[in-house]
């Protein structure tokens, strides 16, 4: 090859390299018309065809998506948690254990049920009337579940014996009420975990086949709904469920109503009456409609209706609370006067009075049943305050019912609360205080007595800032 040919070949090589760098592909790709057509189809035709396909799919499936949601092409419009719920199947936790001696061992599986959200024990052993309290306590502390096969009443006595051993544990000295609160919650969590290791087998339909077992089928049915298969749950949770069922039948006396409120399982019971009395005696602003935000049992909505509120709208997000409030208001003859609706805090509209009794402690709940006590990051409190101005009439008021226990525990300061109120565009019209009368406020043995003995419950009358 001559020097001239070599130079020409080098020039062509440089052109190919430049073309490859410009187009991101080898320069040889564009040497034929067919290659150019294929490249154009890849860049334009495929996306165009895909867009036509999606459009046709929407046109065909949209009329049926309300019946067959899994064929809906609008999956991308769902909230992230809804998309996750569709993509991840819901599974019920299970409990596994073996019975008998090798080589005749049999393996068993049952559905695990826990209202507190506790995970099933990884190791399970059988226990009966021969199991000693010391052995049961040791195994429970190690996280071993004890599936009871003996007499039911003996299981209750064993649980009491384990409880006495748990409560004998010494507490470490603390330097502040905040440390005492955190330690108390940690101890309570450990206590619940240990006491939750004594397990009871249930038949389908919530029956218990143990000797001298109570008939808890109605109590379980009202709390959990029907059970079409056997399951296992902790004895401690069962006893709490039975106690709640008795409270529901008996009801809680409410002097302001001259009647009783019947709390359902999992709904906060109005045993502390001082906040109800605050609502019952505070002068109401003029107006025909009131909101009860986070109604629970419906007790405050009933008080407002009895005091002359022509129409009260009570809101909640918990299905148990909604059912409980409706049942109580029906029993009191107030179902026409009070409307119970599912809503996240406020319903639509403006009113002359909006009442809210949020959870009083700004801490994270460790189980679903604690949501009535703990309000993480004061979310419900902030939500009520921030949404209040947009739902009040010009002369309307918001009544915030709140204990100052969080302040005495070091969880929140009075200055922080006042700042929340001011930042929400509100002003304090008046604060009406009362002292709680429950037993723990006077129990010097309570680890949080120093804070509980100073507790004050207040009704804050709030209005839009000028």
Automatic annotation (TrEMBL):
InterPro entries the UniProt entry points to: DNA_methylase_N6_adenine_CS (IPR002052), N5-glutamine_MTase (IPR050320), SAM-dependent_MTases_sf (IPR029063), Small_mtfrase_dom (IPR007848)
Q: Which GO terms describe its molecular function?
A: nucleic acid binding; protein-glutamine N-methyltransferase activity
The residues covered by the Methyltransferase small domain are: 281-401
Q: Give the compositionally biased regions (Basic and acidic residues).
A: 97-107
Q: Where are the transmembrane segments?
A: 36-56
> Residues of the signal sequence?
none
Protein keywords: Membrane, Transmembrane, Transmembrane helix
Q: Name one Pfam family in it.
A: MTS
Gene Ontology biological process: methylation
* PANTHER family xrefs: HEMK METHYLTRANSFERASE, MTRF1L RELEASE FACTOR GLUTAMINE METHYLTRANSFERASE
What is this protein identified as?
Methyltransferase small domain-containing protein
